[in-house]
Design a protein that fits this description.
The structure holds two protein chains of two kinds. Chain A is globular and about 35 Å long. Chain A is an alpha/beta fold. Chain A has three helices and seven strands. The model of chain A has no long low-confidence stretch (mean pLDDT about 90). In chain A, helix 1 packs parallel to helix 2. By secondary structure, chain B is α/β, with parallel strands linked by helices. In chain B, helix 10 links the parallel strand 12 and strand 13. The longest helix of chain B has 18 residues. Chain B starts with 7 loop residues before the first helix and ends in a 14-residue tail after the last helix. The chains are: A alpha/beta, B alpha/beta. At the A-B interface, helix 1 and helix 2 of A face helix 8 of B. Chain B: This is Malonate decarboxylase subunit alpha. Chain B: InterPro entries: MadA (IPR005777), NagB/RpiA_transferase-like (IPR037171). Chain A: Keywords: Cytoplasm, Phosphoprotein. Chain A: This is Malonate decarboxylase acyl carrier protein.
Amino acid sequence: MTIPAGLEALDFSFTGTRPAGAFAPVLVGVVGSGNLEVLLEAAGGDVCTVRIETSARGFGPIWEAVLGDFHDRHPLAGVRIAINDMGATPAVVSLRLDQAVAELPAAAQGARP
Amino acid sequence: MERTNWNTKADNRAARLARAAGALGTQLSGKRVATEAIGRLLEAVLEPGDRVCLEGNNQKQADFLAKALVQVDPARVHGLHMVQSVLALPEHLDVFENGVAARLDFSFSGPQGARLAKLVSAGRIEIGAIHTYLELFARYFVDLTPQVALVAAHAADAEGNLYTGPNTEDTPVIVEATAFSGGIVIAQVNELVDGKTTTLPRVDIPAGWVNFVVKAPRPNFIEPLFTRDPAQISEIQVLMAMMAIKGIYAEYGVQRLNHGIGFDTAAIELLLPTYGESLGLKGKIGRHWALNPHPALIPAIEAGWVQSVHSFGSELGMEDYIRARSDVFFTGPDGSLRSNRALCQAAGHYACDLFIGSTLQIDLDGNSSTATLGRIAGFGGAPNMGADARGRRHASPAWLKAGREARAGRSGAAGTPRGQKLVVQMVETFREHMQPAFVDRLDAWTLQEQAGMDLPPIMIYGDDVTHILTEEGIANLLLCRTDAEREQAIRGVAGYTAVGLARDRRAVENLRDRGVIRRPEDLGIDPRQATRNLLAARSMRDLVRASGGLYQPPKRFRNW
């Protein structure tokens, strides 16, 4: 896949323990300044892959930490996550990810009080 | 040596008045000076090296007098020592560029901060000190008393009584200091009334304290500084506002408070009648305010949350709303607001239990600063609002609880029972463009070196800050007992900034167990519930609607 000029692409993969199973794609957020779009799709297998395209270059270590914490909260398996980011802060990224997971089948969300 | 004349100031004033009368001739009638003669008046009354207050407020500006001062002949008027709270207009610095003024004591220079820094480094301005508002006003009565005050009022009558309108702001304190120490007071006004067929709505400054009145060709400039469009409030700000209300206001039962400027605190104001109501907090928090008339407070006022608001200044567009809510605001017999920056600062310092505001940078000691490199912005009022009032002696539940938390387990003087003001710094861990709010070293230290200041310009000292609130949680610094604990408490809410990522995870979890750090989930808040739908108004139009059409926003905020 080609990346438009100025964007940075980042890829992460986490081995999960909570299979999401089959689900219709989930889309939350919008591509706008300081915001992002998160797309969740069923992928099968035992990993959760994350593909990020961002207009804010040079924040790889922060993405890694944000996604690591997300995976601690939601150790998803069989999910492909695509993120289109326009300079959202980590707080907004975490919020959108949690909002997206809330749309998944109950089993994928784990036991919530 | 025997002193023969103990009345040199009065003699000097008489001499200045005589010079003015001679220079103006028929252009002076009673106290009224012809508009076109303002330059002649200034050159007649000003003496080289005078201490001069050119009224520059947070909002209201004596802009006509500022322009006139820039145009005086520097051969006659030079080396002035400017003592004014705010440098807002270009003219406030032009007088230094052309040599009319040389020395400066001030409080805040927000809009002119970058140019001020350049003039200082070029040696064009000698700064005496950068003050808080109250500090500068206090020095007006000690060692920085103006010899000439150039102030702005809305209207004057034939005798020289002044009506300031709602933006009274600094005028009373400036005029009192000047008039009672042999100084000269010159007022620019928007309107003249004759006192017979037309009268002033009320008298804010009595004629006996005023020497000259001049009608300005245009109404004085006023900046709508405290208007925040609710449309720009983010979900993260809603989340932080929920945490403030539930984790701090409700926790301490905060009834008397001051909010800083910005979207973070506007979000709190807009959540009181919705989220606050749902928690059953009406009447239990937020009844008395030291606050400019923030449009964002309208929904809470309309819902009956707010008992009183005393204001530093007014806010453009709020005039009719204030007039119609005189139970809440401090209004004159004429119905319009009278603000007073000096007294509201005192109220915020001594009579409020909580200050909450935003900042640009916080370090590991909890010191916070809005200083940025290449700008000398000053302090304004935040250090007085955001500092424990060491002279306070009256108790309130919020103040006592904070004091108990700070003193538990301590002995001696540090353990002597007393209360403490809640001082909350509310910041997102990253500002726009991913600028981290948490830093190892404040830019203030570099600025100190650049500008040769005695101290780094720290806005709120770490030992005054009681809570740091971010989207990640609340750190209660009152409960910390060592520097190391404070550091981890701060790192523990610093999110994914370098400061936050360098936390000791075990120490942070331990602080969380002790309630020093509280996450949204510890407070029973689900971040996914933090939507803009919780805001009592989501647009400027909503605010107008909530006010019953009384609030009239300035044009630039009318986007519908």
